[in-house]
Amino acid sequence: MSNEPAPPGCSTPVAAKIMSPDRVETSIGTPEVSAGVPALEAAERVFDNLGSLRAVEGFLNCYSHGVDRSLAPGVHFDGADASNKLLILDELMNSEPFFTEDLELV
Q: Which of 54, 67, 72, 101 is the most exposed place for a label (fewest CB within 10 A)?
């Protein structure tokens, strides 16, 4: 046990190396923290940032599903027309889009 005094609100001394600092630079600013508790403004900023991160995560999760769904008609046309069938290609596909005669992206 160290001879350090107990932090405010604690009855037992805590080693400084495991304590959270009162000031930390972050990408969303420098939150004000006292005894491990963020100020109201800092908590709101963190909550808003978490909402933004979850929105991006939701978009990215749905984006891959949309790409999969857009590939399904082409795979169905080429013979993989049931859930137990697989389409194997001779060559690697590329990411270049191609257009039909009426300029629709396929």
A: 101
Dihedral of alpha carbons 74, 90, 81, 67, sign: negative
CB 72 within 8 A of CB 81: no
E strands in 10-60: 33-34, 37-38
pLDDT tens for each residue of 51-100: 999 999 988 888 777 666 666 676 777 777 777 877 777 777 666 665 55
Distance CA 81, CA 78 (A): 8
How is residue 91 written in tokens? 């060559």
- Compute CA 29 distance to the chain's CA centroid, rounded to the nearest angstrom: 20
3-state secondary structure of 52: helix
CB burial of residue 80 (10 Å; 0-12, 13-18, 19+)? middle
User: For residue 36, which of 10, 5, 1 has the smallest C-alpha distance?
Assistant: 10
How high is the pLDDT of residue 56? 92
What does pTM read for this prediction?
A: 0.46
